[in-house]
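Chain A, query sequence.
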Amino acid sequence: MSDFDPARLAAVISPLRRTLLAAARRAERLPEIPDAQIEIIRALPRGTAMTPGELAERLDLSRSTVSNLLRAMDSAGLVTRNPRTDDRRQVQVSVSAKALDLFERFDHAGAALVADAAATLPAADHQALAAALPALERLRDAIAAQRPATPPRA
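Chain A, predicted structure.
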């Protein structure tokens, strides 16, 4: 019999993520960037570019939602838009140096916060967290793979 409680795990993950995000923002005095914009930044690692349509498909969002997000991100200096070299009627979007800097600062602050908090936990919890990481990564990938093949949602 398994001790695994999916509801309990789901109930811990979201508040943990929000708590870490808020604490990292405070620690680094980072601006509040909406989650949907953060997902766009994550979808565009350094040196990559995509069309808005490709981003919409990857993130399972409507094209109009992605277009609105990109417009706000462009105004905030978080993305750059350039015409595609093979079809100048289309644009490719990439993450700006400003967004990369903010994201790097967030990641460093988040890692430091987790390290500091984990230092207060018993050694057995350290081992449990280390052992859980590969399973959590596989769980993330399994959830992503289960996305239904339906039209994107707004």
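Strands lie at 79-83, 91-95. The two ends are 40 Å apart (CA to CA).
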